[in-house]
Structure formats: C-alpha cells, structure tokens
Write the structure tokens for this entry.
Amino acid sequence: MKRTTAAQPDVATLFIAASELDSNLYYATKFVAPDPFIYMEVKGERLLVMSDLEMDRAKSQASVDRVLSYSELEKKAKSNGTKEPSTVDIVHVILREAKIRQLLVPANFPFIHATRLQELGYSMKPKRDPFYERRVVKTAEEVRCIEAAQRATEEAVAAAHATLKLATIRGGELWLDGEVLTSERIKKLINVKLMERDCVAQHTIVAGGEQACDPHHEGTGPLPANRSIIFDVFPRSADSRYFADMSRTVIRGTASPELKRLYQTVKDAQEEAITKVKDGADGMKIHQGICDRFEKAGYKTGLVDGRMQGYFHGTGHGVGLDIHEAPRISRTGSLLQEGHVVTVEPGLYYPGLGAVRIEDMVLVTSDGCRNLTDFPKTFELG
C-alpha cells in the first residue's frame, strides 16, 4: 500500500538512517536493514538508494516506488566533478535533477549530513515525531500484529507465574530445584518463551521487594517471598516488528493487609481509567483522575529521604513500532483518537511496603475501548 508522503511537491523528504533502528524509516519502507541507507520522497515518488549488496533484497521487499543503485549514482556524481562522493553527494544528484532545494527531515537527522546539505545550498526543516501522523492511528492489520505479540507475552508471563507457584519459601526467599529462585532465572524463562514465539525481549522487568519500588529496575538476585514482584514485559515481534506491553504484580506467599490494600487501590484505579478511554478523551484528565483517586485513598506522592514515592510516572503511552510513542496519558496528555493503541498502567511505590503496577493495552474506539490484554490480574499466587 502506498503511504501518504509527508512533504509538499516542492519539498523532498529525506532519511539517512538504518531502518532496523529508525521506526519511521521502517514504517515508510517496510524494509529492514542494519546499516544506514537513503530514503527520499520526491514529487510524490518514494525512492530507496541501496548498495549493490542490498539491491535485490530491497527490490523484492521494500514498499517503495523505485530502488536506485548507489554505485550508479556514485558514477554520475564523479562524472559531475566530485572526486570522492559522499552519501550527501548522492542525495545531491537526485535533488538537482528534480530541481528541489527544500528538505523535510526527521528531528534526529544526522548533524554531519545536515551541515553538508546546507553547504550545498539546501534549506532544511526538521519535523518532530510523529513524523508520519498516520502511524499514530493503527490499521486493523497493525492491531492484529500488536495482539499477536501480546498473546506471546501472556504465554511467557503465564509460564513464569507457574514457575513461581512451584517455588517453596525459606527464610523470606523463594527456592526451586534446590536453589534460590532469582530474577535472572525468571527473566531468562520469559525471554526464551518469547523467542520460541518469534518475539525479542529486552530489559524485561522481574523486580521484587525494594527493587520494585524503582519502576525501571529490571530486577537482580533472589526473589523475595511475601513481598510484591512486578513483571513488566514488552517484546517486539521479530516478524511484524510491532511491540506488546503488559505489567502484572504478584506475590508468592502471604501479603500483608497493607500490601493487599495497595494492590486493590491500583487495580481499581486502573480499571476505572480504562472505562474513561474513548475517542476524544483527554489523556491529561484521565491521568489526573488517577492521581486524585490515590491522594483520596491516602497514598501521597513526593520525595521522602531523597527518594520519590507514591505515583510519579505517566498513566499510559502509545504502542506500535516503538514501545513508547504518541499519544500520552499523562500530566502533559494528548487527546485520544479512535485507532490509538495505548497502555493504562498506574502504579504506587513505597519503599518498606512494596510496589504495585498493573498494565493493559487497549484499542481506542468511538465509544470506549477494546482491551487487547487477556491475562488475569491475580495478586497472591499461593
């Protein structure tokens, strides 16, 4: 399917990046490459410039109009008097023939290339994300890809929770197969399960006790008994390259009344927030509603002994080709739109007591949302 270009006819769009790392470039080309290449939108035509190594693969896989040979354009640049053509000199050949002097580039466009283009007389306008506005609203196929990654995530987390259930409690720690059960062992189990489903996980979080009170602590060492353990799993499909994202908080052993209340407060707030997600809803208001609810329940947010506690992160973010993308459900907020896929993930964090975070992904609809997550919210595993 041919995608709408971002620039006007007299303005060319230019990327020089590796699509393996740049989701906007992958979105535009549907071509994965580990090394930087040139992508341009020139007068309505979408062009790739590829090395001889990648020419055939690009022609068969990329969703563009034409694939041009870097080596052939290099010859043309040399015939025009450039002794050792650079990547920018190749771009210059194309733009000069098209008689275009204005460029639209992503905000992360390489400075070294921008400087050279300006020296050649081009005017450049950087554009912040979302570079392609259509990326924010997901197609039915994109939603299917996200759901497939989510099903794999749920299978992996289910296997991890089953392993926790098999553990025994000794001296405040979890033991399995004659050894202490660690965060590393459970993370490896999750990541391997995901690999078996053609998903790649990085920075999987399995953090218990005090570690869980730092929202992005990935977790290390022995897992505690009778204390909350946060699972936050967000793999990318190796096939579609779309992400999923889910958080659950569990405890192996017995939860204190205070910890049970903390869990129930977060769960109730999360489920209420989901009911407020719909087309036209204000993400800032949804977030503030959770903050108000936590305050009313007696859970204060602020700095205590040099460490933040309470609720000090956003409620949700978009998910797609990036794990964090527009829109936002947070104190800055965004207006939600039908077709957005967003997380809803409030949490409370109190050193000494513990932490709870619960996260689902939902698809915004005209009159509400559809929860893409199909996994139980069970706190005590037994």
Notes: The mean pLDDT is 96.
